[in-house]
Design goal:
The protein has twelve helices and three strands. The chain is an all-alpha fold.
Length: 257
């Protein structure tokens, strides 16, 4: 249904279509709420975008440069005269550094990430299109185009060349991710499964190594991410059940990065 759907013309409707795709892909936590309720919840959306962006770090390298340039060159303005939220401001700064200043992220930290693009797109997509056009002619068109590109990429297999580029650069927002998970032990969240520990079963360790090699080719992994014992799916730290088969994170045989 989602793959066959026509892309909406309105910017905000395009954004909500992207959220429905991300929900369809399993990046929203299972809370018992309906899809339409979940995509309206700021906290649920924030968590889902984080999960999706980490799983698809390749996407930023396949987006149209002209559209990213248009997104990066218009400064953000805080609502009601308030300062721009810190993480959003950091994301916008990385976009500007990458696409305006030409910093390609040689230091492994400054290159804009998929997460940065999604943060800024979220902020822009919630504004009336007339306001976007007042800020910069063509901005609403660039935002709409980028959202459509992310939707198409999300419904396609990862680009391995772009994934390799993302892996080489590392995760630009690792400090933010660490802050997001402050107070949570990665091993407690994943149940301290034996595959990542010294003295674990050799066969389980071989499975873990194979899963790690396969997952690293398409996603940026961090300590605490875990592999499901039943289906082998990669799950990001903090997820309490497998994104695919719903096996609890504390189940025997799961392994931790």
């Amino acid at each position: 249904e989602l793959e066959a759907a026509t892309m909406p013309e309105a910017v905000v409707e395009s954004w909500y279509m992207l959220l429905r795709v991300i929900h369809h892909l399993g990046h929203f936590e299972s809370t018992g709420t309906s899809r339409e309720v979940a995509i309206q919840s700021r906290n649920d959306v924030k968590t889902a975008l984080l999960s999706f962006a980490r799983a698809r770090a390749d996407i930023v390298f396949g987006l149209a440069h002209d559209d990213l340039l248009a997104l990066a060159e218009v400064p953000l303005a805080g609502a009601g005269g308030r300062p721009v939220e810190r993480k959003l401001g950091n994301a916008a700064a990385r976009l500007a550094a990458t696409y305006l200043a030409g910093d390609t992220g040689a230091n492994g930290q400054s290159h804009a990430s998929t997460q940065d693009v999604l943060r800024v797109l979220w902020d822009r997509a919630m504004l009336p299109e007339q306001q976007l056009e007042r800020e910069a002619p063509g901005l609403s068109s660039a935002v709409r185009s980028l959202v459509h590109q992310v939707v198409r990429a999300a419904l396609s297999a990862p680009n391995h060349e772009h994934a390799a580029a993302a892996q080489k650069l590392g995760t630009p927002t690792s400090a933010e991710l660490a802050a997001h998970h402050e107070g949570k032990s990665a091993r407690q969240a994943a149940g301290a499964q034996p595959g990542a520990q010294e003295g674990a079963d050799p066969q389980l360790m071989r499975k873990h190594a194979a899963r790690l090699a396969a997952a690293s080719s398409t996603a940026v992994l961090e300590a605490g991410d875990w592999f499901c014992a039943v289906c082998g799916t990669t799950n990001f730290r903090g997820r309490k059940t497998c994104i695919r088969c719903r096996l609890p994170a504390r189940s025997l045989g799961n392994t931790v990065v």
